[in-house]
Structure formats: structure tokens, C-alpha cells
UniProtKB/TrEMBL annotation:
Coiled coil: none annotated. It is an enzyme of class 2 (transferase). One of its GO terms (biological process) is wybutosine biosynthetic process. Its EC number is 2.5.1.114. GO terms for cellular component: cytoplasm. It catalyses: 4-demethylwyosine(37) in tRNA(Phe) + S-adenosyl-L-methionine = 4-demethyl-7-[(3S)-3-amino-3-carboxypropyl]wyosine(37) in tRNA(Phe) + S-methyl-5'-thioadenosine + H(+). The keyword 4Fe-4S does not apply. It comes from the Eukaryota. This is tRNA(Phe) (4-demethylwyosine(37)-C(7)) aminocarboxypropyltransferase. InterPro entries: MeTrfase_TRM5/TYW2 (IPR030382), SAM-dependent_MTases_sf (IPR029063).
Length: 233
């Protein structure tokens, strides 16, 4: 987790929307300043390794994590960094509606449950917000930081962003060094097919592949940045 490659990926997220970042000239559509009204979703929150990057950017963060020790580490880390955090766990997972669970002023909310529930919870939040004038749920980032692959959560990660004009999926995967380009093409084709089926006119581009670190001989830990946009995007 604390390898040099992972530290670089964490820093890359921190610079993702900055005009002066190394990638901004190549991807000018990434330059954004009003992030406090946007949401990031971490499908594998862990101890907050990437959660904290999004929080540092000013985004509201919703995360999912099953390991109670990791959740406690995340909670303590968030408080040490000055971020209000709420953990929804135990009986509260069923006793509280998603709207009630996220109704406070916490910047970070973690659900101690399987991320298979994430899509429904986001849909419930979006429906509730749509009834309030001037309020909407805009998911800007979805992080899938599980190895050897985050593939089981890819479909729901895509669906979570369906109402966003632009969004990025950061999908982690272990890939053979000779298969990276093929995997990138397969991923773009698969998500493009979902976009066609969805019928919202979204464009799908795997705009960047970050080779984070070697996982084993001939195997790279990759992060595929999938850019989703509507219209001119």
C-alpha cells in the first residue's frame, strides 16, 4: 500500500483538476475549480488512502468498506486531518434510510457493507435531492482500488455516474505487461456498450493508463482513467 508507486498515484489524484498539473495540457477538460458541490465514491475505502485525496480536494466522499479495522483506521485518520466523518454500521445500515444516514454535515460517510449496495444508495440519494430546488447529486469520481482486480464493481461504478455531465472512473487492475493496451481497449469497448444500452448519449474514453507499480514479474498494477461525458464534454 505504501510503495512509491501508490504514493505517486495518490499525488496524481490530488493534482487531477489543477491547471498547473503535469497532465492538464493534455487533458484540459480536467481543469475544475468548483469541487465542493461534487461527490467522490470510493468502492473500496480501506483505511482512507484515496478517500483522503478526494477529501483534500474538497469533494464530499461516500465510501464502502467491509473490514472494521480498516474503517476504524479511516475514521481516526479523517479526524486527525480535520475532516468530519460518519460511519454507518451495524443496525443503522437497515434502521436508517440512505437519506438519513447522509443528512449530516460530515464530509466523509463510510458504509460498513458490501459495495453491491452502493448503486441503490446513490439512486436513493439522487431521487431525494431532485425534489429539493437547486440541489443535486453530482458524482465526479468513482475509485475502484482493489487488486488483483476491481472488475466486479465496474458496472455499478459506471451506473453511479449516469446523471453526471462528466465523470471519471479510476479502475485498478493487474495486467500483464504485454496485455495493457489490449486490456485498455477491452475496457473501453465494454463500457461503451453499457453507454449505448443506457441511452443517455454518454461518450466513453479510457484517456489514460497509469502504471502504478510492478505487482509480480511481468505484471503491472494499472489504473485506467475512464472519462465519461455527455455532449461536447
Amino acid at each position: 500500500m505504501f510503495s512509491r508507486g501508490n504514493v505517486v498515484e495518490k499525488a496524481r489524484l490530488l493534482d487531477f483538476h489543477k491547471a498547473q498539473s503535469a497532465e492538464s495540457s493534455k487533458f484540459p477538460h480536467r481543469i475544475l475549480t468548483d469541487l465542493k458541490t461534487k461527490t467522490a465514491v470510493d468502492m473500496y475505502a480501506g483505511i482512507g488512502y484515496f478517500v483522503f485525496s478526494y477529501a483534500r480536494l474538497g469533494l464530499r466522499v461516500l465510501g464502502w468498506e467491509l473490514n472494521p479495522w480498516s474503517i476504524e483506521g479511516l475514521r481516526r485518520g479523517a479526524l486527525r486531518n480535520g475532516w468530519a466523518v460518519k460511519v454507518v454500521q451495524g443496525a443503522d445500515l437497515s434502521a436508517l434510510s440512505t437519506i438519513e444516514a447522509t443528512s449530516g454535515n460530515e464530509q466523509i460517510t463510510i458504509f460498513a457493507e458490501d459495495n453491491c449496495h452502493a448503486q441503490l444508495r446513490l439512486e436513493q440519494l439522487r431521487a431525494a435531492n431532485s425534489k429539493i430546488p437547486g440541489k443535486c447529486l453530482t458524482v465526479l469520481h468513482v475509485n475502484g482500488g482493489l487488486l488483483p482486480t476491481s472488475e466486479p464493481s465496474w458496472a455499478s461504478s459506471f451506473a453511479i455516474t449516469r446523471m453526471s455531465d462528466k465523470a471519471w472512473l479510476h479502475l485498478h487492475d493487474n495486467v500483464g505487461i504485454d496485455d495493457i493496451e489490449t486490456r485498455q481497449q477491452e475496457l473501453e469497448q465494454r463500457i461503451s456498450a453499457w453507454a449505448i444500452e443506457e441511452g443517455l448519449g454518454r461518450t466513453v474514453v479510457v484517456e489514460y493508463t497509469m502504471k502504478v507499480k510492478t505487482f509480480a514479474p511481468g505484471v503491472w498494477h494499472c489504473v485506467f482513467d475512464v472519462y465519461l461525458s455527455k455532449g461536447a464534454g
